[in-house]
Design brief:
Layout: H1 9-31, E1 38-43, E2 48-53, E3 59-64, H2 70-106, H3 112-144, H4 146-149
Antiparallel strand pairs: 1-2, 2-3
Helix pairs in contact: 1-2, 2-3
Length: 151
Amino acid sequence: MLTQNNRNPVSILLLIYFSFQIALLMLTYLTQFNMVGLQYAVNEVDNTVSFDQGVFQKESKNIQITKENSLQIMHLALPIIRANNLWEVNIFLIPLLAAGFISLLLFKSKHKKWYTALYVLLLIGMFTWNTATLIEIRNEIRLHSSLLEQP
């Protein structure tokens, strides 16, 4: 166990937090990761939108924006934006939960059982919220994904 004589506990937790956060930011930056594996980019010059499916191996689908399909494109883009926002929140919450877990393991406390119970409740709450939101986002994408299935 760590004591005040060995290391500053706050600096250890900050190191853990920022290490996890930098790793998640690099994953996001290098792969354009989100939890549904779907990205889009609008090309205003060609008046097209490109949808990329996959995390590491991306399959791209370019669609010409017309009056007829613009609403359907918007309905497909909005859940992707929500998935990106969910992942951006998770980039900050996952390292925080990891640092909290490490602090539960390393540091002694008079009320460790209460801290552990609070941690488990927060973990269950975050997992439930993420899962419910992700299911809702995937259902919205599935509902409007017929645009991606056209030749």
